[in-house]
Amino acid sequence: METDTITAISTPIGEGAIAIVRLSGPEAIAISNTVFKGKNLSSVASHTIQYGKMIDPSTNEVAEEVMVSVMKGPKTFTREDVVEINCHGGLVSVNRVLEIVLSQGARLAEPGEFTKRAFLNGRIDLSQAEAVMDLIRAKTDRAMNVALKQMDGKLSKLIQKLRQELLETVAHVEVNIDYPEYDDVEQMSHEIMIEKTKIVYAEIERLLQLAKQGKILREGLATAIIGRPNVGKSSLMNALVHENKAIVTEIPGTTRDVIEEYVNVRGIPLRLVDTAGIRETEDIVEKIGVERSRQVLKESDLILMVLNYADELTNEDENLFKAIEGLQVIIILNKTDLPKKIDMERVKKIASGFPIVETTLIEEKGIDQLERAISDTFFEGEIETGDLTYVSNVRHIQLLKQALSSLKDAMDGMEAGMPIDLVQIDVTRTWELLGEIIGDTVHESLIDQLFSQFCLGK
Ligand code: GDP
Ligand code: ZN
């Protein structure tokens, strides 16, 4: 294997207590050794840390006090020899160390190149490499856990299992094609294929469902409260915030006029979006028309539509219903302490199957039922966060969707009595798509593109 030795600063740039310059490649130890005053790094035991001084070869003076970790391949992240030079965290000092190792023949690493080497050397598969990237970007503990599990190879193992199932069916068909005289093989291929594709189909569907739930748990449900003036929107917002611990109130880095209130409803973070657009929904339809308000509202995962129980339905209510057609809606009939005036038949008709919850928000009554409706809408039964292997990566989700669709083609084909060697094409395609998740069948250019998204030094 012919590779050069790469290097980069692998801790975040800034004023940390320490910073690390990492080297990986055949010359990692030799290069470090030429500028290190202390023990001979070429002869120290692998996976040990050495204290010493770094010499600037241009002046022969001590440039830095350092701790150097020496790790010999293949038991390293890249499977190559790796050296990590720990130095003071200041920008000047870490850059000086980097320049010194560059002057000794190391090459500055491209973004993601360490992880790319780990992948190319078979240390990790592609989904694990992407998990490293997700880990770097993870904002919450939950997102971190998902990435960690993925890095651990949980998703890879599951994907491999599914591919194995598909491969078995393909093998059977091959036997069948090679020995057409065996009728029972033909019979069996068909049965096995139906059975296996069903299993794999259900499993991919489950992964996608979990992906959706994982996204909700990580990012929260963007929730918009809408309704005409005075129906009780503010009361609902207050009741939700009052009954549930608010998680975060402001997201740093967002503009002042987009303030988001997070509340925790049975483990589901609701992001009560309070953007200018949605806050103004009291007359949003009137102001900007049904189509455009649809556009604004479409960004929401959940619409809480408040109606006044003690008043007739108005045109404004009906217009709002038009604007939220096709979205995920829960209808709240508020002010049930007052005499009923609303036409329930009509409400049920335009609600078209959405849950309807009755509340008396002035007394904070009905919030429990509303919370149950929310939780039932997005999570059937209990939320299990413990052992779930959430798929969180957009590329993986895309591939799973494609795999599901090509498997559907195969199943439809079988149903329609298509010859099995034709059905097999779709099964093979599914197998390939799943392979792309773990990097078995991916194109080199895709690999380059993926790794270039990494931060430097990873
Ligand atoms: P918004 O304009 O939709 O935000 O409505 P608000 O939450 O500001 O409420 C409008 C008025 O209705 C306020 O005076 C509330 O006190 C009152 N209100 C809210 N919920 C109820 C309820 O359940 N019963 C009664 N009787 N009044 C309510
Ligand atoms: Zn209000």
TrEMBL record:
It is found in: Cytoplasm. It holds the Pfam family TrmE_N. One of its GO terms (biological process) is tRNA methylation. Residues 220-379 form the TrmE-type G domain. Mg(2+) binds at S234, T255. (6S)-5-formyl-5,6,7,8-tetrahydrofolate binds at R22, E84, R123, K458. Its cofactor is K(+). It is an enzyme of class 3 (hydrolase). Gene3D superfamilies: P-loop containing nucleotide triphosphate hydrolases, Probable tRNA modification gtpase trme, domain 1, tRNA modification GTPase MnmE domain 2. The keyword Magnesium applies. Binds 1 potassium ion per subunit. Its main location: cytoplasm. GO terms for molecular function: GTP binding; GTPase activity; identical protein binding; metal ion binding. PANTHER family: TRNA MODIFICATION GTPASE GTPBP3 (PTHR42714), TRNA MODIFICATION GTPASE GTPBP3, MITOCHONDRIAL (PTHR42714:SF2). Exhibits a very high intrinsic GTPase hydrolysis rate. Involved in the addition of a carboxymethylaminomethyl (cmnm) group at the wobble position (U34) of certain tRNAs, forming tRNA-cmnm(5)s(2)U34. Belongs to the TRAFAC class TrmE-Era-EngA-EngB-Septin-like GTPase superfamily. TrmE GTPase family. This is tRNA modification GTPase MnmE. It comes from Terrihalobacillus insolitus. The gene is mnmE.
